[in-house]
Design brief:
By secondary structure, the protein is mainly beta. The protein is built from no helices and 11 strands. Strands 3, 4, 5, 6, 7, 8, 9, 10 and 11 form a 9-stranded antiparallel sheet that branches. Strand 5 and strand 6 form a beta hairpin. The radius of gyration is 17 Å and the shape is globular.
């Protein structure tokens, strides 16, 4: 079972994390606690079944080859919608995209990300990748890729 807090009630298999004792430096009274920050939580990314991810249809103009399917799950979104954290998955194929300011960690699968006018990034399990807002990319997904991400808009 995965412990978490701060997620919506529709998130399966997630229980609130235990609260800290009053006066504890990790409690809500902590001088460093920011009431606008999301609650701390843990999610087992590989443990979330494919059928728990929601369809995120690609614009047909993004598909270069194959029949890639994108699914995902938003785990947290800032009230102003300028930060998003979640899970994203894509099946094999080739697609193009214009990136947001994103940090992600690949949980499973492999892909080659070609940044227009820049580097070619080979990503696989355990790799952390940073994509710059506005970069135009071409993703060649070799094995269904699942990542945990944080996007700043």
């Amino acid at each position: 079972m995965t412990a978490a807090s701060g997620l919506d009630a529709n998130t399966p298999d997630i229980e609130p994390a235990p609260t800290a004792e009053p006066g504890s430096p990790t409690g809500a009274e902590s001088p460093s606690a920011d009431s606008s920050a999301p609650a701390s939580f843990v999610v087992n990314i590989p443990g979330i079944a494919d059928d728990e991810l929601e369809p995120e249809p690609l614009d047909p103009s993004q598909i270069v080859s194959g029949e890639p399917v994108v699914t995902g799950k938003v785990l947290w979104e800032a009230p102003d919608r300028r930060q998003i954290r979640g899970i994203w998955q894509i099946t094999p194929g080739v697609v193009t995209d214009t990136e947001a300011n994103e940090l992600f960690v690949v949980v499973s699968g492999r892909a080659t990300i070609e940044v227009e006018g820049g580097q070619v990034l080979e990503v696989g399990p355990g790799d952390a990748c940073i994509l710059r807002e506005g970069d135009r990319t071409r993703w060649t997904v070799h094995e269904t890729l699942r990542k945990a991400y944080h996007i700043s808009l």
